[in-house]
Amino acid sequence: MAHRLSVHWLLASLCGLTAGLTSSQAFAQGPRSEEEREADKYLDLEPPETLSGYGYGYNSVARQHTLKQCVTFGTGRIDVGGPSGDTLQFNSVKSNDELADDMDLSVSAKFAMSMGVASTSSSAKVKFLQGTKTNFFTHTILASYSSVEPMKYIAGSIVLKPEYKAMLGTPAFRAACGDYVVIGMQGGRWLYGTVQLVAKDTTTQSRLAAGGAVDVESGTMSSGGGVNTVNAMKSASNSNDLTIRVSTSGSQTNPVNIDQFIAFVQAFPKQNGAKQTYKLKAVPYEGVVDDWPPSNPLAPLTDLIKLNTLAEAAWGLIALAEDTNFVTQNAGVFALGTTPAKRTARANFIKARRGFYLSQLDALRSGAKNCDVDWKSSPACEQLYTQWKDWENFAIAEYEQLPRRYTSDCATPREVTLAGTDLAMTLNTHLNKAIGAFQNIKGDREIDGGPTAVRAFLDFKPNFTGGDPLATRKLLATLDMQIQEKGGDQSTFVYAPRIDVADLAQPIPNGGSMVTLNQCAFTGTGVRAAQVSPNTTACDGLKQLGFPQLADQCKASLAGAKHHGILFATAAKGARTETFTKGVSGAIRSLKCTVDSDLKDDTKSIACPEIGVGSVQFDLVNSQDVLADKWVSPPLTVNPALVKNLPRGVQPSASYTATVRKSIDTSKKPLSTQTKVLRAPACKAGLVAYRGECVRPLKR
């Protein structure tokens, strides 16, 4: 999962921190010190659409900004210093949790959104995210640009205004001033835009896969982004299936199509738009106000590390519920099995699983919705964290058991082709290059003027050379031909080429674009063309000669010899080159052959360089449907911690598991593994380092 470096991590380099542990890694090392827990009092806030800024309050219980400045402070500011970066990039995102991280959403806003209790005075970023539904089976590309300034803090003393100091110890103070006060502001320009495609037909998915935009096995958007991927979404789909949304600092433009979207995103960094507030930093009043009484703590202590884990779990359950609902609503584009009974059983299980996710989400929200107000006040917070701290393993195990999405339309009737070349041309190209390839197996090398018998059998089968039969990609055609002199010494020439006439590994044309058959597998002979048997009339001559038993054996032998195409014909006496259209059955419609060269040695001239064939269509099955037939319904569990240890039926491939893990895993690595960090000076005077940031120190 690709994550844009947050401003916080970038500031870490400015504070001389060459490697910082992530929240999950820090907790994994053991109980945190009081100093580490103190860092949770530094609260990142999204700027509301209402008035806010230095000295304004925030009510963490109501999750709302106040409209009052209850403190006085000077005009001095402490500038963290250093550049914050200027980046424009496209990312593929698989969940709203990942989208929130890529948009650098604060933990408090992220938690409130995941619990369904986000403030109505939300920032533009929060509202943008609230209107965006992203999950594993929705293709989403995020275009993001940010050029933000370092955080600036109030310098000097901060004191309560007399009228609000008189309210201390009463509910009126929290109602008017909140329990946090904004001491830091960060400004800049930014853009977030999404292009989303909900593909509800296999053709669209196949076009995306052929163009490299989605993984050909899992049917999910590839991890890379970029203009090419967005254009692939445009080319593969109907414009009605695309949703475009944009949120920026200042601009009100709303692109209505892909071309406008790309042009707008690429032009935005070059414009000189007005800067706006990007993020606020708030701390409890008692932490910075000089005249705050020591016995009157107001803001609760909240464990942001664990709070973030619960938010990720909630969003993960939301995504699982959305994705399972998509499967049941669009079962025709998923590999549920090759029989109606198997497909119905799988769909019913998925529907029941969705109910389980929703019940778990309700329980999580009910128990944790106030954990951001005061973590310690409710035992449920710690209990829920223990239950869901390994939620990523739970989510990965669940996604591994969802059916694979079709990226290939294997059921639609489709003529056999090879890289866009039809069957007849593929065969004729080979036959034209094989003039003189017939082998003399009987008599001399001269066919003495005829009449000459011509026989041909055409057969198709998957070109299986070992390994997994479902992985066979090529279709083999065998054309067994014989030219025999009827008189004289019955000189006989034979040629039986084996020709690959299709390759499922190659994209094929479809409606002006390319689709993939990568998920398809041959079934039976690989073609839908019926097999036919030779005419048994010739066997009647044996009966007339007094051999009725041999006649019956002859007929039985011919009836058992089935081919996709048959030709029995005779070239007239003196014929050189002749096209045969009589005596054909099955897929063979005609055969043009040179049967005599009027030379003493006909070997170099004997050939059948042109064949006419009828309709021959693929007979394919989706390989994922074949695997889905082996699926066995696992027991439903109510304990997420146990689900990864349950036998879950079909084992997914390693590549699919890797795709799921990359999409679901939200863990972040230390900065030193993401980018090279130059040695930087320590935080400026008046600032201290807390969890990768330079911040104003607290008094208590």
Biggest sheet descriptor: 10 strands, antiparallel
| Overall form | elongated
> Percent of residues in helical segments?
25-40%
N-to-C terminal Cα separation, in Å? 38 Å
Q: Mean pLDDT, as a whole number?
A: 83
Task: Give the count of helical stretches.
Answer: 22
Please report which band the strand proportion falls in: under 5%, 5-15%, 15-25%, 25-35%, 35-45% or over 45%.
Answer: 15-25%
Low-confidence stretches: 1-36, 668-681
Q: What is Rg?
A: 36 Å
- Give a count of the beta strands, DSSP E runs of length 2 or more: 30
Structural overview:
The chain is an alpha+beta fold. The protein is elongated, with a radius of gyration of 36 Å. Strand 13 and strand 14 (421-422) form a beta hairpin. Residues 1-36 and 668-681 have low confidence and may be disordered. The strands form eight sheets. Strands 1, 2, 3, 5, 6, 7, 8, 10, 11 and 12 form a ten-stranded antiparallel sheet that branches. Strands 15, 16, 17, 18, 19, 23 and 25 form a seven-stranded antiparallel sheet that branches.
